Amino acid sequence: MTFTQLFALYYTLFRGEDSPPSTTDPEWTVAINLYNNAVNRMVAMDDTKWNFLFTTLQSSSQVSPALVRTLGSGVTSYAAPTDMAEPGGILTYIDTAGNAHNYPIIQPHEVQIQSEAAHYGYFTGDSQNGFVLHINPTPSTTEVGYGIDYMYYKKPTALTTSETGSTIVGAGDPAFYYNHMLANRFRTSENYPAYQTALRDAEEALKGMKLKNNSGSYYSAWGVQDTGPGWGDTSTGDNIFGD
Question: Which pLDDT tens digit goes with each residue over 10-26?
């Protein structure tokens, strides 16, 4: 769904008119800000990790500043994409034959207990000022030129005031976005009964999004990872609860 389509749904519910205003109307700019506010609400919901916000370095479309995606001679630090919100857990080198070599991404404080020869990566920085990947050891002659990849959790894309309407809006249920936008538009209009109704509908849609996000895919339902015998269980079975 494009933002133009989302705006039409939102505005029809707000005004009851079948012809929403043009992109030069103040209501268009208001709707952009309301949409961004809805996105922020979605991101903050119970610290949910939305599946559609996971991506990789190699698939990043960032153009400026340019990303370095290959190992350089003597280079041990590489700027991460600017849309990184949280690092992932695996660092991958891709050799000239396309083979993947996986190494752990550790916490910065864990560097002090690693051997000098150990392969690992760690990130410094934060989501506001940007992240930097640090790798160990320095790339060998053989590794220079290998591709670098890692999964990370990205920030959702916010719309700007130059939005033309062609942008595909955030994944999930459109009902969450337009109801959340509608709720806050009613609030600024001091229509509190309508605000409460729209907010309720938005939150119900958001709960549905979270349920689908955390339920796994068809025939691959989410479950507790089996980590071996449970506490106090001396058997060799695989029931983590020790039954």
Answer: 999 999 988 999 999 99
The DSSP code sequence of 65-77 is: SPPP-B--TT--E
From 158, 197, 157, 163, select the one nearest 180 (Cα to Cα).
Answer: 197
R_g (Cα) of the chain, nearest Å = 23
Q: Report the C-alpha gap between 115 and 107 in whole angstroms.
A: 15
DSSP the chain: -BHHHHHHHHHHHHH--SS---TTSHHHHHHHHHHHHHHHHHHHGGG---GGGEEETTT----SSPPP-B--TT--EEEPPTTEEEEEEEEEEE-TTS-EEEEEEE-GGGGGGS-TT--EEEEEEETTTEEEEEEESPPPTTTTT-EEEEEEEEPPPPP-TT--S-SBPPSS-HHHHHHHHHHHHHHHTT-HHHHHHHHHHHHHHHHHHHHHHTSEETTEE--PPP-SS-TT--S----TT--
Q: Which residues pair with 84 in a beta bridge?
A: 154
Other CB atoms closer than 10 Å to residue 232's CB: what's the count? 6
Distance between CA atoms of residues 161 and 188, nearest Å:
20
HSE (CB half, 13 Å, CA atoms) of 48?
Answer: 22
CB distance 123 to 131 below 8 Å: yes
Residue 216: strand pairing partners: 221
pLDDT tens-digit profile of 44-76?
Answer: 999 999 999 999 999 999 999 999 999 999 999
Q: What would the mean pLDDT of 78-88 be, rounded to a whole number?
A: 97
Assessment of whether the complete model's pTM goes beyond 0.70: yes
